[in-house]
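User: Predict the complex with 3-phosphoglyceric acid.
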Amino acid sequence: MTMTLLDIMRSARVIPVIAIDDPEHAVPLARALVAGGICVLEVTLRTAHGLAAIRAMAAVAGAIVGVGTLTQAAEFAAARDAGAVFGVSPGLTPALIEAARKSGLPLLPGVMTPSEVLAAREAGFRELKLFPAVPAGGVGMLNAIAGPLPDVTFCPTGGISIDTAAQFLACKNVACVGGSWLTPKDALQAGDWARITALAKAAAALR
Ligand code: 3PG
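Assistant: Here is the predicted structure with 3-phosphoglyceric acid placed in the model:
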């Protein structure tokens, strides 16, 4: 059975936001995260290796791979064809709404204000990324939005760490959080997969 975006968010609880600088890192990184209990992986298109990394990581047993940093319509179909099963964008525009519909790729669009939440909801999106979560007001902002806009569910991302993730996950309108803290650049460069698995285990334990 196909998982909905909400199913994926709820099953994840913590989604690592990944930027691959070296394509050789993709498979061992995905294996290390899955070994630590972190299975939903957001692979961003911030580097030239994003699509190839999605293709490689989607083949790793247990990994559920999405594409992150979608900013252009043309990227949707390419990411879907590479194996992404969901997409994340820092924002939302008419072109991105159209691309999501055409590609069939479930999209988690970014919002930062109540008006952006309303616009996204009007376009049919009920699962949203609060980005950048901490500069946007963090937990206080999420709790304040839950009153007037109770029917949207968030993945806050941006400025969250292992020390603050639990506070975000305790918000009633939060299904999962995203962050880059599980994939420190120095650990990737050193091929320190054991450290990545340890970070994943600590994040998975937040559940
Ligand atoms: C994102 O794109 O969601 C953020 O860059 C991740 O934010 P962080 O690096 O502060 O965790």
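The beta strands are 14-18, 40-44, 64-68, 87-88, 107-108, 110-111, 127-130, 153-156, 177-179.
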